[in-house]
Amino acid sequence: MDRLISSARLMIVSDLDHTMVDHHDTENSSLLRFNALWESTYRHDSLLVFSTGRSPTLYKQLRKEKPMITPDITITSVGTEITYGKLMVPDHGWVQFLNQKWDKNIVIEETSKFPELTPQAETEQRAHKVSFYVKKENAKQVTEALSKVLEQRGLDVKIIYSGGVDLDILAKGAGKGQALAYLLEKFEKEGKLPANTLVCGDSGNDAELFSIPGVYGVMVSNAQEELLQWHAENAKDNPKILHASERCASGIIQAIGHFKLGPNLSPRDVSYIAQEHTVENATPGQEIVNFCLLSEKWRRGEIENSELIIAGLKAATHPTGVIILPSGVDHSMREYINIFREVYGDKQGKQFRIWVDNISATQISPDTWVVKFDKWELDGEERHGCVVTSVLRKDSEWFTLIHVHQTWVEQSGQIKWTI
């Protein structure tokens, strides 16, 4: 929460499965479109929050499976855990709040009396959440009976049924909506309330997000019946909630434009030629994203193999510039452009993608920035990552790359070529 010194221009609070992440999109196109938009346009002055029913264990597993960027805040286990940053530092104030009138042992004792309930994996049983599977036809009856029993035992609980199969019993004060309300209250006390907040979801456990006063909301086109029914019964006349016509992350991008919350044209939707024509208004973050996308398209053979592009790269690199590879080998940038020329189309027809994460630009002089970021390459089933520190200088309307230093995120599975 301390990354920004002032209020965020935009805070996006998004569910993951079937909202930010489309499990039916084998190319991860919509997720990668969002990643490029966020890192190029919003990372420097906005906040990204992932709010998921997954436990931290399953959340980290998803990050290994999908090309996800790092959020500023992570809300996991259906709003029972709040953590900050890449290291996922827990919010101890939230833990203390949830401890009120909650006893996990009593919940386990009483739920064991319901044969209709099948416990979920041990990783999904959390300090303030007990989770089960239940058939749809039994859900209503079990929920009502459990609510009465646990109330009689002196507990304040919340029972959420979602996805047509998942039943979560939470501490009363927990939930995706309550976790968001808690964060907004903290921001307000610090004088850093986001200018706009957009919540995004697809299922019943996301409904609470849409109930927070003042937020914009998007139900992605593939939203489940339970969320659409909640909307019809509770918010059908609310102009600040959109049922998008696009799936998952593409629906989130659509909502940004629909509500006029900021730019919503992803760099992945712009040709390289068009990007060159808009360089005058570019930021260091945009320059980094555009360069990595050029590298991806070049190696996939999706742009013309032309001397014009090579000449443009030479013009955008300093004559004495140096690039240090993760292996420790260094090259002059002009020499490295010749290597770039040789790998044209080497990933043609393959599932090869490049994305960047956690772009941070620090201005060290009126025309010079140090830009740090994580760069990832996905090549089929293999993933490789580098931590990159670069120095950019803006001469008139052009950015010039002066220095690049790369180190491995992971030592295993190193690749021979990276830029």
TrEMBL record:
Keywords: Hydrolase, Magnesium. GO terms for molecular function: magnesium ion binding; sucrose-phosphate phosphatase activity. Catalyzes the final step of sucrose synthesis. Residues 284-410 form the Sucrose-phosphatase C-terminal domain. This is Sucrose-phosphatase. It is an enzyme of class 3 (hydrolase). Homodimer. The keyword Transmembrane helix does not apply.
